[in-house]
Amino acid sequence: MSDSSLLAQKRVLVVDDNAINRKLAVAFVTRLGMISEEADCGPAALVMLESTHFDIVLLDISMPVMSGEEVLARLRADVKYKGLRVIAYTAHALPEEKQGLVDAGFDDLLIKPINLKAVESVLAACLKS
């Protein structure tokens, strides 16, 4: 199965407090044939996840009010989100930071600044696993 057919029509929630970063990720996700929605903070993302099914969440780490790690902890603690793939969407790229995110329970990492190929690769790998 090709990456494009694997990604087509999957639902992605992009969560980032920075509007430009959010819009860029949404543009790439949409270009890959996926359905995207966006949230500008952790609490808004949790509300959206309560009412809408998503296959993947691209979750910024450094956000005011509630960090991406806090959002992830809430999702991982709730059995209804057991199959939800959550990708850390972050500029935190030092090796120890990456390992800490994996240890926290993220399925994968997408390091900013992003490009279309990186988005496609990470999303496809996440859905294949």
TrEMBL record:
Cross-referenced SMART domains: REC
| Keyword presence, Phosphoprotein | yes
Top-level taxon in the UniProt lineage:
Bacteria
Which BP terms from GO are recorded? phosphorelay signal transduction system
Which positions does the record annotate as the modified residue 4-aspartylphosphate? D60
For whether the record's keyword set contains tRNA-binding, the answer is no
Response regulatory domain: which residues? Answer: 11-127
Report keywords, A-Z.
Phosphoprotein, Two-component regulatory system
InterPro entries for this protein: CheY-like_superfamily, Sig_transdc_resp-reg_receiver
PANTHER family assigned to the protein according to its UniProt record, in alphabetical order: HYBRID SIGNAL TRANSDUCTION HISTIDINE KINASE J (PTHR45339)
Q: What is this protein called?
A: Response regulator
- This protein's species is Zoogloea oleivorans
